[in-house]
Design goal:
This protein is α+β, with helices and mostly antiparallel strands. The protein is built from seven helices and 20 strands. The strands form six sheets. The protein has a five-stranded antiparallel beta sheet, with no helix packed on it. A hairpin with a 5-residue loop joins strand 15 and strand 16. The chain starts with a strand and ends with a strand. It binds uridine-diphosphate-2(N-acetylglucosaminyl) butyric acid (EPU). The site of uridine-diphosphate-2(N-acetylglucosaminyl) butyric acid has 18 residues, from strand 13 and helix 6.
Length: 337
């Protein structure tokens, strides 16, 4: 078993932050995973499972074991008149799988193009963008139970998916490693272009909504608004969009008529945190190498030499100022380590 020591994680997190882990190990099969977890029962190190590294902020060196999931494979399991069931290794790159789905003429995840990270990370926070959430295509999630050292499975319902949330962030926290995700994609295309930005982009492209045109539109929009982590370190939205009661929203609207909010199922309102942060004056702000993206205030960026602590401190300041100005609590979407 090849365990690396004092391993620098700079190239494995999308913030491009340099931080070392005491031990590092890559696994690409259940057997290797079993071995390392069993071995860790002897060395007893704190453990973190790394996927694509696109949703973490490393604020210090890690005194423990980081294991990187590299279980691969995209395999069609069954096909019916309207659906195709596909089993995907948790270590596959998410965008590659979206590309695969569009190439194979299957719909359901095309609006989730270009979201950085691995397939195994997508159920954890139920990724979503441009009117689609991954929960609507997930059939089952296979996971490795750290206690029993066996692979188990949850149905979609059992995952308890909500906005940027699932059982994996709550009851199952630190008890599981996702190994495979089973998706059910549709032969009939959703053509979900309701999200304003998509419609605008399709008009610009002079294209009708279709599987391929929406995929292209999403890629264009993301490329315009969201920085490419390879060029500018970031982890997408740093905060979640907060949810407040309609009563409070109406009151805020009197002082801020342009406040951006969308009603959700139970009548509460999801507020665009990017708007709050921008109105609190942070858009484009920099402090050393840490900054708030010029085009999307919800995205914090590393201009080069920022440490995780620099980014974290900036996030605290933003959080406090939004609280003070709007009396709204914003919480990170990113996992802080
Ligand atoms: N807005 C501003 N200023 C900003 C940013 C946004 O006023 O600096 C306003 C926009 O004008 C717009 C509204 O906020 O009216 C929403 O902005 P946007 O469409 O960019 O979406 P978002 O709510 O900021 C969410 C997701 C993104 C996802 C987009 C598109 C969360 C936390 N973020 O952002 O997900 O790509 O919707 O669907 O829900 C991610 O999770 O990493 C991520 C990028």
């Amino acid at each position: 078993m090849e365990i690396q020591k004092n391993f620098d994680l700079k190239n494995l997190n999308s913030f491009n932050i340099s931080a070392k882990t005491k031990y590092f190990y890559r696994f690409s099969s259940i057997k290797e995973l079993q071995n390392i977890i069993e071995y860790n029962k002897i060395i007893k190190e704190k453990t973190i499972i790394l996927g694509g590294g696109s949703n973490i902020l490393l604020t210090k060196d890690f005194d423990g074991l980081i294991i990187k999931n590299e279980i691969k494979g995209i395999n069609i399991k069954s096909e019916s008149l309207r659906h195709v069931t596909i089993e995907v290794g948790a270590g596959e790159n998410w965008h590659n799988f979206v590309k695969w789905s569009v190439t194979n003429n299957l719909s359901g995840i095309e609006n989730l193009a270009l979201i950085p990270g691995s397939v195994g990370a997508t159920p954890i926070q139920n990724i979503g963008a441009y009117g689609m959430e991954v929960k609507n295509t997930i059939k089952k999630v296979y996971y490795f139970d750290i206690e029993t050292l066996t692979e188990k499975v949850l149905t979609n319902k059992e995952c308890d998916f909500k906005y940027r949330d699932s059982i994996f962030k709550n009851k199952f926290k630190n008890k599981f490693i996702i190994t495979k995700v089973v998706f059910c994609l549709n032969k009939e295309h959703a053509n979900n272009s309701n999200y304003g930005a998509i419609n605008e982009e399709l008009n610009k492209l002079k294209m009708e909504p279709s599987l391929k045109s929406i995929f292209k539109a999403v890629i264009n929009i993301r490329n315009q608004k969201l920085p490419d982590p390879k060029k500018l370190g970031n982890s997408g939205s740093f905060f979640k969009n907060p949810i407040i009661e309609n009563k409070k929203f109406q009151k805020l609207k009197q002082s801020y008529p342009n406040i951006v909010g969308y009603p959700i199922k139970n009548g509460d309102i999801k507020i665009a945190a990017g708007w709050l942060i921008e109105k609190a004056g942070w858009k484009g702000y920099t402090e050393g190498s840490a900054g708030v993206h010029k085009k999307q205030a919800l995205v914090l960026v590393n201009y080069g030499e920022a440490t995780g602590k620099d980014i974290l401190n900036l996030s605290f300041k933003i959080k406090d100022s939004v609280k003070e100005k709007f009396d709204i609590e914003i919480t990170p979407e990113v996992n802080i380590i």
